[in-house]
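1st attempt posting a full record on here, be nice pls
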Amino acid sequence: MTLLTRAHRAFAILLAPFVLVQPLLAQPAPAAPAETAPATPPIPAPQAVQAEGEVPWLYRGSDVPVDDKWLFGEMKNGLRYAVRGNGVPPRQISIRVRIDAGSLHEEDSEQGFAHLLEHLLFRESKYLGPAEAIAAWQRLGATFGSDTNAETSPTHTVYKLDIPDINEAKLSESFKLLSGMIREPVLSDANVSAELPIVLAEKRERGGAGQRMADLTRRTFFAGQRLATRNPIGIDETLKAARGKTVQAFYDRWYRPENTVIVVAGDADPVVLAGLVEQWFGDWKGTGKPGVAPDFGDPVAPASAAGEGMAPAPIGELAVGVEPDLPRSLTYAIMRPWRPVEDTIVYNEGLLLDAIAQAIINRRLEARARGGGSFLYAQVQQDDISRSVDATFVTFAPLTSDWQAALADVRAVIADAMVNPPTQEEIDREAAEFDVVFANEVEQESVQSGSNLVNNLVNAVDIRETVAAPRVVLDVFRGMKSRLNPEEVLAHTKGLFDGVVTRSVYVTPQPGEADEQALRLALAREAEADGSARLAVASISFDDLPPVGEPGTIAVQKPLGVLEIEQVDFANGVKALVWANDAEPGRVTVRVRFGAGYRAFDAGSAVYAPMGEAALVGSGLGELGQNEIDRLATGRKLGFDFAIDDAVFTFTAQTRSEDVADQLYLFAAKLGMPRWDADPVIRAKAAAELAYNTYSTSPGGVLNRDLEYLVTGRDARFATPDPAALGSVTPEGFRVVWEPLLQQGPIEVLVFGEFDKPAIVEQLRLTFGALPPREPIAAEVAARVPSFSANPGKPAIVRHRGDANQAAAVVAWASGGGVASLRESRQLEILTQLFNNRLLDALRERAGASYSPQVFSKWPEDLPSGGRITALAQLEPEFVPVFFAEADRIAKDLAANPPTADELARVTEPLAQLIRRASTGNQFWLYNLEGATLDPQRVALLRTLLADYSQTSPQVMQFLADRYLAKGEPFLLAVIPEGQELAKAPAGSTAATARAAAGAPAGR
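the predicted structure (as tokens):
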């Protein structure tokens, strides 16, 4: 039934910090190259739709009520489909084509072929010539990478299309192109040679310490099974040996109609969608002998492990991985064979009981970690992995080298849960959390996007289960209330920790700290049940909380002048934007903007900025600590996201109509009566210390750590604190820095969604209106604007400690900031996308030097300057100078020569479609109107937003390129491996010629 707890079972489980099974997101899907819509042939009526009363193919063997919004069909050639009408967002169609074959279906000599084949289907096919995909699809309004993509997992390959601004001609053309891709790709030696560098670049960018530990974890947990030796990305040996003939052989075995499911949802008649599926795939026939799915194998305990120790199951394979730059992490798993299930209501009730049991344990583990335990975090999660194992994973991060004490503490909490039943109050608390989630999904059903619907059904097919309407899920959960009792939850808790074998991996930065024998002995020791982590069950009510202050006075209440948004100004200076609408039933977004943001910090206090992002919310409010706030939120949908922006701090939450008043109280109370618990600060400091070295493991990590700091001329506010800086952090110092910051600067509250407007205006008066007047932001603080560090002709060089074949390069140009020039920033976004297309073509498509080079623009609206345009890529070290040369060449050419009309259309049409789709939700309007109470220009500029992003001229692009790219002095950064020097590019080289000079196959 694919309940909430099953959402990610199809592909992977994340065992921090390693991914065991990770789907590979790959190519964007192609589209019609024609500039005008071709004549559309009539769409025949579908013949394979299942008859009324017949059990649809997805529901056979199940008593889960059929979601009758789907129209199911089975064709004579074995292909199955499911289609439905959906208008979210309007005029969009989402298509998924699932092939029931992934990396587990590869022979030893084919490792990586499933993923390589996915790339090749986008390179050339019956209706698309070589290298036509990206440009053609952009001309039809699809955003590269998000509207057009695919993934390869161990068990399947899925092709994904989200087609905007649909019409009959575009719909028919899309199905035609898809049919050509799926049924008749051109799998030639030339195409394999062209695509291989891109796949190898993707593989290289995924490498490093994290990947090594992921590989070790996969080999250990799935020992004896195909999953242990089948990573979707493949291995160099088999990928480099790939030829058109060998890839064709893999295709012929698995790309067949009987292995295919097509799922479509969108703003069209389902009968029309079914007719298109049958029209373009009904006469498809496989070639040659079909493949026979291999046995994925079962987890089996070694004979020597039978009856060993006191572990939950006999101890099997163990491993200790040493990586100097990775934090400590220990995972053990109780493994069981995976078997297909009858997806019945009783089965799903069992899953829900499993989920309640896990939630209780995880809440106890989190309470222990919050209170200064021996581990930073710990989590229990049951998961089905790639139709290979059913396992319960226990993952935690020891705070020190005494990993055995941390393991004992975690196991003690679990042992107590296995011996002693939970209280009914604990069960009811977790059940209330589930109920609010399921009820919210019912409320949101009418605005559930087509892309989510098709993804959910594809995942259900992958794990061999059904889908259920939100009301069915809620009714099933509420109907099993009698089963939510201590005895049944205890029984399911015990079942989670019963299996055929226990396996474990410990990752440490310190050689000699542990070995397999020590790990075996630690797991074999009997765990002593410890019930001290059980949480108090005393309920807390919002009605019992003190007021924020004396209720305020409304000074002004007036229309904002756009939509039906009202501005409410209070006598204490707080300003609010309130928009009651039913665009998203039952949903409300609340955002609070206050204070000075990064401007508030200087070199002396900068270390406390990231500590605030991690610990400010957890430090409590009034008489309530973090655990008490959690109890207060029971049965409610409340959020508390905190972020530091360029010139403002923000609280953000998505809540429900019935909970928005309580959400406003929480946010106002955090500002009006903050609490300063020490434990969240200590925990945040420990997390930062443990994580710091991980940045050095890859070029991407170094960019995350250093780019903002270096490009702003080493501004201390943007430095990632190192262990020396973190050593000065104390809870007392945290309060000294943050307490005055919560009292400074104007407050703006935005409330957008479905709610009772008079009631919420009154709640604003009782909460934010009751706060004391704010302290002004000092002039010297307000004037802090990030500078820009240019390094003429010479890149800054930073080194990483990852793989020797990994590097990254960055070129950045200063731009501007502020609302007054906001229209120019929108035009800059068009220029940035032009640059991105050219860089992608040069480095990925023609040279295969980088998997995903990117160009993006940052324009701080709340500051008068500080913006920049940034181009970056991860690539091999020898290509770093080539990247600099290509970026410089593209920048100069954009300034010297106006782009063609076709180039512009490939950018402006996707941007226009992106805006039209986004504008159907409240988030879009909130984002574009935040700050409008202080700067009314934002309201006027909203009216030109679509035109600013979608209408321009070649001359404007040339002007902006000259202004920002040609005349500005760029900042250059190279991230290269330790022990290497920056290479020199061959004179006059381009990415393509450099690739050839390096001896690698040339791409398109």
